[in-house]
Amino acid sequence: MIKMIKNNQTKYIFVLGGVMSGLGKGIAAASIGYLLKQAGVRVTILKLDPYLNVDPGTMNPYQHGEVFVLDDGSETDLDLGHYERFIDVNMTRNNNATAGQVFSKVLEKERKGEYLGETVQVIPHVTDEIKERILLVNQTNEYDVIICEVGGTVGDIESLPFMESIRQLSLEVGYHNHMLVHVTLLPFVKASGELKSKPTQHSVMKLREIGLSPDMILCRSELPIEQAVRDKIALFCNVPSNHVIEGRDVSSIYEVPLAIYKQNAGRLIKDRLKIRKTPQLGALKKFIKNYKNPKYKVTIAMCGKYTELIDSYKSVMEAFVHAGVENNSRVNIKWIQTEKIKNYKDVRDVFSNVNGVLILPGFGSRGSEGKIKIVKYSREKKVPFLGICLGLQCAIIEFARNVCNMEGANSTEFNNKTRYPVIDLMESQRAIKIKGGTMRLGAYDCEIKVGTRTYAAYRKKKVSERHRHRYEVNNKYKKMLEKKGLIFSGINRELRLVETIEVKNHPWFVASQFHPELKSRVNKAHPLFREFIKAAVKNLI
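The structure assignment produced for this chain is given below.
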């Protein structure tokens, strides 16, 4: 274990963004976390989101991207997926705090009379609550460093209470126990042929107006940052020149820790926080080398309804990266908008050049018939197949219709009058009116049947996986489906919940009710994704 300063004070790194959103603060925070973890530091990451939603669970994916579900059932920001994948630490509900949660807590305390008749104000009541949420993540004192990423952009009205809280906390913990990293943009103006530092200058100016000053500036740029530009940023932003770090686009997000480490970002953090060890990066270097030099290239059809926004399926995309590296292959994606497929009489041309098919998770009837048609093609043409959540449900429907001769079999989510409701609403959901946080969420055990492809993937009889669904396999039809050859390879016996299914006499046809993508990590690909890509490579060869 790395030796910290004498008082063993928890240390904080605050990651803030300027100029515009979407610059990769989450990747920056995760990358810093990775460097610390590989130096033997006990580290975790907290996402502070200024929006007033309690959580992203009810948001449209086009608004917020993927909802990342944790073991404890929390619906959180997609950046928590980056945190888990990089530092290999399971997050909890304490690792994501929204303004909605903060204000709700403050108002709850006010209604209970806990403020003893005081006028409730942003300062100190809201800011104190934010500080409490920052401290809560380390209430058991199991971490040396807490990285706090603040969503949004410096200057946003809704961010101000969070910035004020960080200002106060920075003073309270002391100089060597906190550090502020500012992620900003250096736009390239083609007409003048130069990178412009003025937006960064103004962003830092806004930051200093509210009492904060960056210790390191991570500049996103399309081009290399010349020393003269670094010097200019350093001069106007009041930091040493070597504290200006270049953040160029890379072929894989997993290169970012290496890229910033080469620019002495690790040493800057080490010196500021009085950390004595250096990170061991051999495993990551090997991962990147394998990623860049694959022996095979496979194409996977990604079939869903939010295909215009890749962030809707961020964890799936990263799971493919991990599984690809473990199979010495590069996974290329062919996006399939399932709503369009239902009108195709023959889908062979659409899938003629793919080596595997994945039916993505989702909700609602839009695109469902297209997904069912794709399942049929994959099953009959023996194309390696993986279905996730709704993907499993569509696989059940297809098998019931076309193998068991249950004409019109469906999910009650799509048709509540179907004669064969092979997928039905969970009994516990029937009286629920509130949508937020009321699904089956979080980790549940799954017993794996020995001798199945699922067992061959996991190599164990019991696993724990994360869920996010309201509908599930109707057990009334389980025997009928089994009789016709469907294999129920994974079951939660306590809940009588079908977790995984397989099809006999198929190279690789597996579907899961849970979300395996949520547990895939760097250098630790999820077993189902690993075996799926292995089957796709065999299909290629």
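Interim note for the steering committee: Residues 1-7 have pLDDT under 50 and may be disordered. The chain is about 35% helix and 20% strand.
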